[in-house]
Design goal:
Elements: H1 5-33, H2 36-43, H3 48-55, H4 59-71, E1 76-78, E2 81-83, H5 86-92, H6 103-109, H7 118-124, H8 135-157, H9 164-170, E3 173-177, H10 183-191, E4 196-200, H11 204-215, E5 222-225, E6 238-244, H12 253-263, E7 264-275, H13 281-287, H14 291-306, H15 322-331, E8 336-343, E9 347-353
Helix pairs in contact: 1-6, 3-4, 6-8, 8-10
Bound molecules: S-adenosylmethionine.
């Protein structure tokens, strides 16, 4: 085949941008970790000397970091001062804003220690569990799901489930399976004090984070357990079961779905949120705006966790889409499946009933 110089230049330029993005993840994760975005956002235009005085950090390192951030167009630069636009403040500094995404850099950085283990993973086929990544993985996931779980679950998502708000208000029993740091479980427990909530997670680090978050609250209607110590009940118990980004991650999704089915009351509801994706790779390639990010997460975290046992399913981050969810839940004996109106660019939400 003839060598197309224009095509080579095009690929070369894109690779250059992606190498820059790799460095950007590290440097921006540092900005997040060190509180630099929040400081610049609060302070307004500032130079490296001012930032060093305000933070107590080393001026020369801050100067290079600030220059990088301006070149990456995260910060604005004029007259020797670095500043953040209101839009950049929302994305980098305001954890309560729906567009906050600085946690994404941290989540990528959390996978760096796994790099040296990955060649062996590709040889053996055996992936790394959530806990193999250390506590950084549970923390990264916690921050990325924080907005929806703290701000939208109770006021926007639960009211869409048939009769559920009344039921929870009156006093129901609910399980949040794969609860991670427990933000969703705690938000529901706070909103519905007459109901009781159990958060289940197989990750030691996730359960520890959930216990820490619980200790900061004064709630007495919620507890967190590892299902390896205390399995979910196998008789109809729960009025509501929730899973947020769990099924695609788990090594045995069939077993998980079957145990959710067994633990649900006959008139119970499973609120299932999972990654929005198309049924075929060709469609994801052509149409999914976040496909490269999601396949990246899949190899480094989600598919890896799902393949962390020798016979794991390995669905992958994009592997529990609507078509697969319909098929697997029907096979497990669920008879009703509805895609909820609520959704966001990353997640679909399903109301699934016995
Ligand atoms: C992507 S995280 C989501 C955590 C949390 N739901 C959130 O949205 O922040 C998936 C979680 O599911 C947990 N998990 C995977 N399989 C599980 C299972 N069979 N039972 C309980 N937890 C499970 C993992 O340990 C991990 O904490």
């Amino acid at each position: 085949m003839a060598f197309d110089r224009d095509k080579a230049r095009d690929i070369y330029n894109r690779v250059g941008a992606q190498v820059a993005a790799g460095f950007n993840c590290t440097l921006s994760a540092l900005g997040d970790e060190l509180g630099l975005y929040r400081t610049i956002s609060d302070h307004g235009p500032i130079d490296s000397v001012g930032l060093a005085e305000t933070t107590g950090l080393d001026e020369r390192w801050l100067r290079e970091w600030l220059r990088h951030q301006a070149c990456a167009q995260h910060l604005d630069y004029a007259d020797g001062q670095f500043s953040m636009s209101p839009e950049a403040q929302a994305i980098f500094a305001d954890e309560d804003h729906p567009l906050f995404f600085a946690s994404g850099f941290r989540s990528v950085a959390a996978t760096y220690p796994a790099f040296d283990k990955m060649p062996e993973v590709f040889k053996t086929g055996l992936g790394l569990s959530y806990d193999d990544h250390g506590e950084a993985c549970a923390c990264g996931v916690e921050r990325m799901s924080s907005y929806v779980q703290k701000k939208e679950l109770v006021p926007k998502i639960l009211p869409e489930l048939d009769g559920m708000v009344d039921r929870l208000g009156a006093g129901a029993v609910s399980a949040d399976v794969g609860c991670g740091a427990g933000l969703a479980t705690l938000a529901m427990a706070e909103a519905f004090p007459r109901s009781r909530f159990v958060g289940y997670d197989t990750s030691r680090h996730a359960i520890e984070r959930a216990q820490e978050n619980l200790a900061k609250s004064s709630l007495d209607n919620v507890r967190f357990v590892n299902p390896l110590d205390e399995p979910m009940p196998d008789t109809p118990t729960y009025d509501l079961v929730t899973t947020f980004d769990v099924v695609h991650d788990t090594p045995y999704p069939d077993e998980l779905i079957a145990s959710i089915r067994a633990s649900l009351a006959h008139d119970g509801t499973w609120l299932c949120s999972d990654i929005r994706s198309f049924p075929t790779f060709e469609q994801n390639l052509a149409e999914h705006p976040a496909a490269a990010v999601l396949y990246g997460f899949s190899v480094m975290v989600c598919m890896s966790a799902s393949l962390s046992t020798p016979d794991g399913a390995g669905l992958g981050t994009l592997g529990f889409n609507e078509a697969v969810a319909r098929e697997m839940t029907e096979a497990a004996g669920f008879s009703r499946f509805r895609v909820m109106a609520y959704g966001n660019p990353m997640n679909n939400f399903y109301e699934i009933r016995v």
